[in-house]
Every structure is written in C-alpha cells, then in structure tokens.
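notes to self, project folder thing:

trying the whole complex as one job this time. last attempt i did each chain seperately and stitching them together was a nightmare. three parts in total, labels are on each line so i dont mix them up again. if this works i'll redo the older ones the same way
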Amino acid sequence: MTPPRSNGTISLLTDFGQRDPFVGVMKAVILAACPDATLVDLTHEIEPQDVRAAAFWLERVVGFFAPGSVHLVVVDPGVGSARRALACAAGGQLLVGPDNGVLEPTLRKDPDALVVELTDHRLASIGRTFDGRDLFAPAAARLCAGAVPEELGATLQDWERLDLRRPKQRGASITGAVVVVDHFGNLISDIELDPEQQVARVTVQGQRVPWGRSYSDVALGQPVALLNSWGCVEVAVRQGSAAAYFAANSGTRIELLLGN
Amino acid sequence: MTPPRSNGTISLLTDFGQRDPFVGVMKAVILAACPDATLVDLTHEIEPQDVRAAAFWLERVVGFFAPGSVHLVVVDPGVGSARRALACAAGGQLLVGPDNGVLEPTLRKDPDALVVELTDHRLASIGRTFDGRDLFAPAAARLCAGAVPEELGATLQDWERLDLRRPKQRGASITGAVVVVDHFGNLISDIELDPEQQVARVTVQGQRVPWGRSYSDVALGQPVALLNSWGCVEVAVRQGSAAAYFAANSGTRIELLLGN
Amino acid sequence: MTPPRSNGTISLLTDFGQRDPFVGVMKAVILAACPDATLVDLTHEIEPQDVRAAAFWLERVVGFFAPGSVHLVVVDPGVGSARRALACAAGGQLLVGPDNGVLEPTLRKDPDALVVELTDHRLASIGRTFDGRDLFAPAAARLCAGAVPEELGATLQDWERLDLRRPKQRGASITGAVVVVDHFGNLISDIELDPEQQVARVTVQGQRVPWGRSYSDVALGQPVALLNSWGCVEVAVRQGSAAAYFAANSGTRIELLLGN
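result (full assembly):
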C-alpha cells in the first residue's frame, strides 16, 4: 500500500486540558512550519495519563477524517524517559505520538501499518518536559507539509501493545465494562455489536435496562440501553445522566444477553 | 430576497461539552466534504438540552458574522425521535439545526426567512444517537460548499416556536429574568432597552442596584446594573461575581423602573 | 527596526472562559474584516482579571510563533474605564491589548518596541462592556490584514508597567514563588535558570525536593524539581499533582540553592 500523503489537516488529541497555553503553543510550532495546516481539536480533556481513553477515541474517530489527515496524539506519561516516539501510516491516515500503546488499537486494524521511530527533528529548546511542543508537533508539521513517515526515522517492526481489557463472551452472555462516561453522563461500554444483533437484556449495577434504538424510546428520566453511533453498547438516561442514575463510572460492569 | 451564498465560514454552537471528541468529529465530517471551510466555535458549554440558552445566544451573535456564514446548532434533546431537522436562510445567514425552537428567535426577525426540512443526506453510519455528526454536519458542509437550502429538502411553512418567557411591562415598570449567568458571574437578563432610555432603578433579590454605563462606574466589589454590549440589562459586580453576591441564577427576577 | 508585517495568524489569550460565545464572536468580527486569518487559541481560562498570569504566558509563548503573528490579549479588568488600548510591534510580533501591564513584560524584552494608542476603529455597537469584540478584535483584524501599528493610533513613549514580584537572590540562594499551577498540578515558579546552572537543592513548604532533568527521574507518585521547557524551575509529582502533594498554589514560596 502506498502511504497516504497529507491533505493538510491535523487533528490534536491530548490530556493537556485548556487552562494553560500548551495546545496553543503546539499549534504555533505547527503553523510556523506549515502555515496552511488546518487544525482540528479532538479533545484535550482526556484524564491525565489515561492512555486507554485516548486510544479508544482515536480508533473510533480517524475514519471520519478524509484520507491523509495527520493525527497528533500526546497522552504521554513517559515524557522525558526512554520511551520511543512514533510516526505512522495506517488505514489511510497519518499518526504521530508516543510509543506507549495509544496508537496501537488504530494500528492493529491495518495489517500494512507502517511505523517509524522519530529519531531527530527535535525543536531546539530547553527542558525535557514538553515533547508535544518540541518533538511531536514538529513531526506532525513535517508530515502535514508532505513528508512520508520514512523521512522521519527508521522503520520499526514492533511497538508497544495496549493492554485492553476486552469484553468476555460465554454463549449468548457478554460481560464488558464502561470505558467512557461522556459529557452527558452516558455510559459507553467496550461491547461492540453488529447492528443486526438482537439483545434480550442489559444489566447494570444489578438493574435491568430496556433495550432500545434511540434515547427517545423511553420517557424522560428513564434509562435505556442501545447501540450508539460509535458501534458500542451504551446505557443512557433520557435527558438525564446515567452515571448519576446508576452511580456508575469508568470500569463499571455491563452485562448483556444476546437473543430475543 | 435572494438567499445568501456561503462565505466559507461555519460556526458551531452545541451542548456537547469539550470532554469527548464529539465536536472534533463533526469538524472532521465537515472538512472531509468541504476542505476549505473556516470553523468557529461559538460555545459547546450550553447546559445539556438548554434550548433556550442556545437560542438566546444564536439570536445575538449571528449579526457579527459576515453575510453568508453557516451556523450549525446542535442542542437536540429529541435526537432519534421524529422531530424534524432544518436548514434555513434568514437575515443573510444560513442556519442548520433541529426543529425544536432553537433557531426560531433568529428566524422570527426575518419575515422572508426560508426554512426547509432536511430529508436526506444522512451520513452512512450505525446508531441513532449522533445526528450532529450524521445529519447536521453533512448539511452544514453542503451549504458551506455552495448549496442553497432548497437543494437539501422541501420548503416548510411553519416550524416549532420557542416558548420564551418575555419580560412583562406595566407602565414604567418592567419585570424580566436572568437568562444567562456568564463566566464572570454577570447576570444577563432578557430585558432589552434602547440605549437612550433612562432607568430610575433596578432591583434584584430585594436589593436596589445603582444604574451605570460600565463596570468601572462603581468601586471594586460593588454591584452595578447597566445596558450591556448585547443590548440587555445586566447586573454585575466590579471584578467580582454578581451571581455569588446576589445568590442569583438563571430565572432570578430582575425588576426595572424606567425614568429619571 | 522595520515593524513586522502580519503573516495572517492571530492568537487569542483571554480570561473569557468557554461557557459563553464571547471568544467566538470576537472571531466572527475578525473574520468579517479579515476572512483569511488563521486563528489560534492560546487559552481563555486565565483566572478572571489575572493580568500577571496572562503576562507570564504571553512573554513565554510569542517566540514559538512565526514572525509577524498578531497576539490579541484581552484580560481587561478596566474595560469601560479610561485605561488606554494598545497596538504594538515587539520582538518581530504584533500585539493588541489593554494598557494594564499585560503586554509589558513582552514589550520590555525589545528595546525597539513600538507602542501606539488605539484611538478609533471602534465597532459601531451598543454598550461598553465588551471591548474585546468592539475595540481589540477590529484592531487585531486590521493588523492581520496588513496595517502597521502607526495606522491605528498615535505613538506612545511610555505605558503601564506590570508590578512583577521577581525572585530574590542572595549569594547562591534564590527565593521565588509559584506563578502558575498548571492543568497537571505542576508548580511553575518565576525562577528562571540557565540550563547549565547546577542546583544543590530545592525546598517547598519545608520539604526538600530532589533535583532532576525529567519527570521520569523519580518513581511514580514522587516529587521532583527541574528546569522545565519554559526555562523556569518547576516542582512536579510524577503522574500526580504537586499542588495536592504540597498543598501549594499560586504564590507558594520556592527556595533554591545553587551549587553541587
């Protein structure tokens, strides 16, 4: 497969929050090197160092971007350590980030994924606390300006895998867990279903939740389980917070029984 | 009136928050269809499902955009239900959003407003929980790329009205309410005045508040009422929070007496 | 020195928060006047009226932008008062903001800084509560579109200085203070060091903190002091919050002893 060429768009996904100008200065570095880049914030509110949540979202959103988009992911508990830095091509997209598993579920989907270790191109600056600015942003800018990953470092044959707890299936019974509590309090689980699959029942914190197709299938304030727009089983409360209703959070068990 | 053609700018106004990549993925969908779009975030911190607050701000901000801007509004408690989806031209601007009243105060100002029901152009995807991504963003991208609303669906003659509680005037006395508590704790009311009108007094939570022209008309920590830059009566505390000072919030009554 | 011409990029640094569409409407005003501007948010989460924090970050980030970038700074406790409004050229960058000291540390670094008082070009609008929209954004747009500061007003020879408490040095002993607690809980101090300087010890809240070069020099949950990527002494806890660990906040004293 020919690696994709940049289309000029760079997405940013970090745990930097928005209180400090950290994301803004990464954008300054990118625009200084690649003035025509189009920048899209995915989120900067990943919980600090939550590599799994960042990996979960990255895997699900890249397919909505035009081929040749660059995705700059900086959730990097190992900044300043010997952990490697990566530039990759996979699934028609370009990826830049630390070698800590955050890119790995996205890479896993493409058997022809190309991964290189970023070996130079560090911004001349003091300190070792901000590789987002000094290492990853310059690499993303180079990809955006037309470089292929091989120009940024030597090809790797293996990289860190992410230890994802995957749902367990036994017959028609699937046990998964909440991976994301979203802004609305919806409980997004790691159970992925085919849209045609029938669901007999979903149980959360010992309570049965009716299966539906949209939030409006139940009355205001009532819970519903459904297949959400990310292909995951989700438990919601119509115009309310399922996290509050069920006293649930990331890691809460979700049990599902397939069938009519 | 000829409906305006897009100038390439799209504003986004939602209650999605910024914790999840929901806004980012809408932008991905827009840019995949319309790579040269210029995207402007109005806010994504509307309280979940607060259609009134979104409508209040939309009505006040559109006039600051160049004619032909597209405004994508997704505050959509009825997602997945039978509520209609709209694309509109009004006041020289283009609007996209659910038919739940959120666009209606803006439409009301233009007797020649054009409203169509979005009937197709849904993104091929699973789930019914994210019309922002699957229905509204593609429509905004089409308008941005040059389509007129009529190309997106059939013209409607009526649409949902927003049940706005408007201020009540009896002689020189006006009773309104706080509609927005802003980031600084300022109390923005629904009382709109002409800049030339004289105000004798303003009362909040039983306390008289002096009338002024700017925050700096009073000492630090003191309250002042004034006509703010949105044309609304606002109660503020200089370099402090009026919401805290008056223990006020959205819905708190504001009483105003016209005259010298 | 010839003042720089705009490269088309405008950064925004405010205390407006993100709950209200205040930043979005400033962008609308800019884009209406200068449709090709590239907009970069530095942060809008400066604590309300915290001129010092805004000045601290502005001084440190401007150098990462390409020459000729415009920086629009609106932390403006004196809005509506007689405080002046400024447009400046300094260090190859263009600056717009209130004359309250927020631009001054950045101006101080360039002996050839050019400062003018914004005297006209106010947007025709009601109210005196939003100079960000009505005065500063139009000025930034004019600079972005190619105007030089002198076209926006009369040159000033002096302007408000910022009363910065600077660290005190006595022999090898330096006493500074935390100026920013960042999103991760890191304590960023006002002590700037040369990367070659040796540090014997750092003390915070009576506790000695080991000196290191990166967060990963200590075990998880342990504190470390280092020279961060802004050139400042910082106290951190590896994958934790130093603010919580030391019960520290903005203003907490940091003591440092130079030497081996």
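what i see at first glance: Chain A has a mean pLDDT of 95.
need to look closer tmrw
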